[in-house]
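Figure S4 source data
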Amino acid sequence: MYKVQKMIGLSVVAGLLLSGCGQAGDPEIIMPDTPMQPSAAVSGGVTAEPVAAEEETAAAEEQGASPSAGGGEAHTVYLITMDLADSYWQSIDKGCKQAAAELGNITYKWIGPDTHDDALQSACVDQAVSEGADAILIAANSAEGVNGSLQKAADAGCKIIYVDSAASFDCVTALATDNEAAGKTAAESMKTALADRGITSGTIGVMGVTQDTASCVARETGFRAAFEGTDFVLADTVYMMDDAANIKSAVTAGQSQGYVAYFGTNEGTSVAAGEAVKESGRDDLVVGFDTSDAMLALIADGTAYATMQQNPERMGHDGMVIAVQALEGTYTDTNTKTDTGVTVITADSM
């Protein structure tokens, strides 16, 4: 078997439809506490200059497959996401392709449904198994909805690796953002910016998606925890509920009450808050999440101070590496959480 040559330590914290137009925005990250357990230390990953894979054939491209160069026994690895359209999933795919090229002799294929639906995603898992997948990287649509198909995949000998969003079925590892830690990072960025403006107290507006969007709730939890013991007051969360007007109205109300800053827990809330501030002509501080073109434009023109960039490309890259290591027996841990971190994006860092 082909063996991974170069290793780095990873920081650990915690098909029937081949085309589609998925829901835009920030995918919900589901990280159930059971059966997932944190691991104290895991070795994995590779570091190498990217090696170009052999040119894909037209037939392979039509099927979405990416055979890679290399010797030894081949491995077939599938990526299954919630849809195929969102740029976030495309970044995970990019990371998978890079790792497949580095490792060599990997047949890689990305599939997914055209909408967020458990039954359609389960069909994709079944397709991967029927086509001989040795490992499946999956961003699970829900905690329980695809478990039946994942059980069939495991029975067939497939290794299961979660990227971004985990189901409650046993896995090798789940690679995702530690959202509570990311929320704390966002808070520290805001604290720094407020201090630079000479602001040491005041009320901060907090914008959520829905009360049960797990990823955003975790970000808010971390954000609020970081402000404990300060002279700042965090207002009750205002939820967007699929209507950006809710956030814009909340920002307008906050401005009338003298709020000093606003925090958006995902791309939609962050952009809505930033646009409301921009329309008002004021210089209120906005810190948010994710890096859509709209959000980056708000950072670039100075409307928003910072946004937290998740690392989906790393999820795909390291997920592919760990999948191969699991297949070759060099990665033997199970049910670990691998935190892929966030990067703080400001105008100075763009």
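Figure S5 source data
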Amino acid sequence: MNLILCSENCRHQKDGYCCLREYGKITDVISSPCVYFDEREEDAENKNDKNKKSY
């Protein structure tokens, strides 16, 4: 088993390590050097909420 250090905001990251158990889909995300990066859903939703303007 390989221990891959990870500090990304990815759903596969846990306690500073990548916990991807099997190969996933390769993403084309510019914001991360990892080809398997998949942003955490709850953080993505919060990010979208912050971008919405309240009047």
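The two ends are 52 Å apart (CA to CA). Strands lie at 13-14, 17-18.
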